[in-house]
Design goal:
7-stranded antiparallel β-sheet, Glutamine Phosphoribosylpyrophosphate, subunit 1, domain 1, 18 helices, binds fructose -6-phosphate, 8-stranded antiparallel β-sheet, 2 domains, alpha/beta, 608 residues
């Protein structure tokens, strides 16, 4: 959903801005550009395609100024092209924008009626026109921005520079994140901390309707009405995690292999390894004993982790759990009981719909819990209670290790609530805690079979479509498996509750259809096997994932992939998701797709 970077300072802006964009490439990668002062004017270079194309174009280009802005794009208005790439320059004003201007049709009319000539199909260019028009009327850059901002509806974070006002850079926002890093006589502005931390750990998070005005080596903060604001810097304690593949061909594969570590790091703050007991930490301040209703809200892969959470929590306590897709939840008419607790799961902590849903719930006075990977992200900062995935930076656009961490945290939540309610005997607590602690090494065992999953994937390229199925807690994992195949291999895959087969999907089955069935040996095993028989009888090609040496399942399957028996049903999803991720990864590689940056997607969805 676009990454923006700005720099003001004595160093080489080209390098700082480009490296910043590199750190933000996960946010969008269909085109990119920079605009930097040079010889007293602005020099702009843009390119369609991945950042590497811009990098080539920038090679040998000199910039002798000390202020610049950059952008890596995920197209909303206007197809990916150099013409639509940011920065957008109009009469010496240059802007980069992350977000969507919802009233752009009206603004377009206004700009055209004033004689403006549009060079792109974007909503963003209009902002440059509007600011340039205000400067034409004799306003200074700051006043021009304050005049234009109230006319913009929708979500935006914007950086502006102008040839008429060298030495100034203005950042303002309503929606997507914007952070100002305070360095030694230098300012680093970016959509995400990752583009800043290697330069400075002292940062200011801009809130909505706020402006940062950098001028003559100083920064001042204002509200959008021009009222001065006092903002206190946050000093981060981040180790700079280098985005390196460490010998893996892709970040995604590296991240799949990091899952055992991610799970261990996620559960660590809650578990006493000596006594095998569990403590929910700050969440114990909530009256969990009397908790009756819990809502879990998220998007995509995080939503599926939430669905699995429902199975965990409802199995271990008397709490009734509703799981909602954030984009539905935020607009639906609802009757949330005052005492309900609402959990928001988000790797990035920035997903626009999840954030809006959280704000809606907070307005109603309900208590909220964030489950995030990125600390200090909007969702993390806005929630009352916080759980961290602790997965480390997830660079691959398709989420993998954050899913595993979220699943583990949902188990911690289920156990914690059950314990607070007095429903978890100490024997059960020991059993579940021990099984969670054992999960990472079992996950290592599954990963060791990567070669077999790669072999199994060879056959999958040829199918017309895929049905991923499971029952109970395996159903959300089936949904996640189908999503991974869709987004990486660009093949049609649907996740289904296996019990729903007879209600429609059976009609799809013929020998060109692959059935990926999750059938571990649990209480629903026999029923799952019946579903498998039905699919096989209709010519479906079965790829099954089950427990250990399961001869019955093997005999029904074209390809049988075994995972170890973890002894606890709750740990099973952490194991069975690994073959699903690896199958999707290897099919995508076989097609030659860019698995780290699948087409049309972006990691952080900061617009709805
Ligand atoms: C799929 C994927 C997405 C995200 C979704 C929510 O692989 O990555 O479906 O899970 O966009 O993102 P977060 O968790 O950052 O809110």
């Amino acid at each position: 959903m676009c990454g923006i970077v700005g720099y003001v300072g004595p160093k080489n802006p080209k390098e700082i801005i480009f490296n910043g964009l590199k750190a933000l490439e996960y946010r969008g990668y269909d085109s990119a550009g920079v605009c930097i002062f040079h010889d007293g004017g602005l020099k702009r270079i843009r390119a369609e395609g991945k950042l590497s194309v811009l990098e080539e174009k920038l090679e040998g280009e000199e910039f002798n100024g000390h202020i610049g802005i950059g952008h890596t794009r995920w197209a909303t208005h206007g197809r990916p092209s150099e013409r639509n790439a940011h920065p957008h320059n109009v009469k010496g004003v240059s802007i980069v924008h992350n977000g969507i201007i919802e009233n752009y049709l009206q603004l377009r009319e206004d700009v055209l009626s004033q004689g403006g000539v549009l060079e792109s199909e974007t909503d963003s260019e209009l902002v440059a026109h509007l600011i340039a028009a205000e400067i034409d009327k004799g306003r200074d850059l700051f006043t021009a921005v304050l005049t234009v901002a109230p006319r913009l509806e929708g979500a935006y974070s914007i950086l502006v520079v102008s040839e008429q006002f060298p030495g100034e850079l203005i950042a303002f926002k309503s929606g997507p994140p914007l952070i100002v890093g305070l360095g030694e006589n230098a300012f680093y502005i970016a959509s995400d901390i990752q583009a800043i931390v290697s330069h400075t750990q002292k940062v200011i998070y801009l809130d909505d309707y706020e402006v940062a005005h950098i001028k003559d080596g100083h920064v001042q903060f204002y509200g959008l009405k021009g009222q001065p604001l006092k903002k206190t810097p946050v000093v981060l304690d981040w180790t700079v995690e280098r985005a390196e593949k460490q010998g893996y061909p892709h970040f995604m594969l590296k991240e799949i292999f990091e899952q055992p570590r991610a799970v261990a790091a996620a559960i660590d703050p809650y578990i006493d390894v000596q006594s095998h007991t569990l403590d929910l930490g700050e969440l114990r301040k909530e009256n969990l004993k009397d908790l009756q209703r819990l809502y879990i809200v998220a998007c995509g892969t995080s939503f599926y982790a939430g669905m699995a959470g429902k199975y965990f929590i409802e199995s271990l306590s008397d709490v009734s759990v509703e799981v909602d897709i954030a984009s539905e939840f935020r607009y639906r008419k609802m009757h949330l009981p005052e005492e309900a607790l609402v959990i928001f799961i988000s790797q990035s902590g920035e997903t626009a719909d999840t954030l809006a849903a959280l704000r809606r719930v907070k307005e109603q006075g309900l208590k909220t819990v964030s489950v995030c990977n990125v600390k200090n992200s909007n969702i993390d900062r806005d929630a009352d209670y916080h759980m961290y995935m602790n997965s480390g930076a997830e660079i691959g656009v398709a989420s993998t290790k954050a899913f595993a961490s979220s699943l583990a945290l949902m188990q911690v939540m289920a156990l914690g609530i059950s314990k607070e309610k007095g429903l978890l005997s100490s024997e059960k607590e020991t059993f579940y805690v021990k099984s969670l602690l054992a999960a990472p090494s079992l996950m290592e065992n599954v990963l060791a079979y990567n070669r077999f999953f790669q072999e199994a994937a060879k056959d999958l390229k040829n199918y017309r479509g895929f049905l991923y199925m499971g029952r109970g807690v395996h159903y959300p994992i089936a949904l996640e498996g189908a999503l991974k195949l869709k987004e990486l291999a660009y093949m049609h895959a649907e996740g289904y509750a296996a019990g729903e087969m007879k209600h429609g999907p059976l009609a799809l089955i013929d020998p060109s259809m692959a059935i990926v069935m999750l059938a571990p040996k649990d209480e629903l095993y026999e029923k799952t096997l019946s579903n498998l028989e039905e699919s096989k009888a209709r010519g479906g090609q079965i790829i099954s994932i089950g427990t250990g040496e399961d001869e019955r399942l093997k005999s029904l399957s074209k390809n049988y992939l075994a995972i170890p028996d973890p002894g606890s049903w709750m740990v099973n999803p952490l194991l069975e998701v690994i073959p699903l991720q690896l199958l999707a990864y290897h099919v995508a590689c076989a097609f030659g797709h860019d698995v780290d940056q699948p087409r049309n997607l972006a990691k952080s969805v900061t617009v709805e």
